[in-house]
Amino acid sequence: MIEYSIVIPIYNEQENLPELYNRLKQIIDTLEGKSELVLIDDGSKDNSLQILEELNQKDSGVHYLSFARNFGHQIAVTAGLNYAQGNAIIVMDADLQDPPEIIPELIEKWQQGYHVVYAQRVSRKQENWFKKLMAYCFYRILNRFTDVTIPNDTGDFCLMSREVVNILNSMPEKHRYIRGLRAWIGFPQTAVKFNRDPRFAGEVKYTFTKSLKLGIDGIISLSRKPLKIATYLGLLTALLAIFMMILVLFWRLYQAPTQLVGYAMITIAIFFLGAVQLICLGILGEYIGRIYDEVKQRPIYTVKKAVGFNKIQNINH
Ligand code: UDP
Ligand code: MG
Hints:
- This protein is of the alpha/beta class and 317 residues long.
- It is 51% helix and 18% strand.
- It has ten helices and eight strands.
- An eight-stranded mixed beta sheet has the order 7-5-6-4-1-2-3-8, sandwiched between helices.
- Helix 1 (17-30) links the parallel strand 1 and strand 2 (34-41).
- Helix 9 (225-254) runs antiparallel to helix 10 (259-296).
- The longest helix has 38 residues, at 259-296.
- The structure holds uridine-5'-diphosphate and magnesium ion.
């Protein structure tokens, strides 16, 4: 019977894996109960998969699966949760930004009866100000837009109970924003504070566009409020139009007619309305695109190889 599963998505992390394994091993050895590592190779192009194979050969507690291509971080975590066999499931990054040393603290809270114990950052070392600012604004916008409260400055680093993971696994949606879904599920949740370390080695895999995509997924999967923006923008432009009508009337009555003002106003109005309509179409498109992705009912990921898992998992497919 496996007690703890540690789920780690991996995309081109060959420099980090040996150190990650060593640090995790030290922690795992101190835990009571059997643990497994669930390592998901998200279509890495470097030697990560070979390293996983070697780790599995020398340690039977290392289980891994390999995607047929890169599907992205959230999908890799989803697959890990599908395959994990433990009673408590810990999700963390492979780059040692999430220190394995706080795992015992997470477990302690779980033993006290919490179903979700998320690690909350108190500092971000060596991340640039732009990323910090984006993260700061994003979490605050998200909480405003959605009905669930996602605690500020939490990422995917957390422990979840078997019950919570079963519910997550039963959610078939394709665009997954795990920390949002995790908050949506409910159950007693608590935080453990930690200092986020800099990446141990290698490049950041989350590019600006990937982060932006994740952010949009987060807001749209949890909220329909952006759709209302269309209504508000419509009302706002109607008010502006009335204001312009009054202005034009005023000019006609009290000023000598100058063509220039008229042209400028028409051009501005056309551009402005065009922009408003495109924004609204874009927002609609985001939702319709997601509906399309859901109705296609494709599997969320394709697995090339899975080693060390007993049951044939068939969730989400
Ligand atoms: N990752 C992944 N697939 C991707 C991108 C990232 O599995 O397409 C993994 C990566 O190997 C790491 C984790 O997701 O374990 C977080 O990535 P990263 O450190 O680049 O992001 P950040 O620390 O900026 O959130
Ligand atoms: Mg990182």
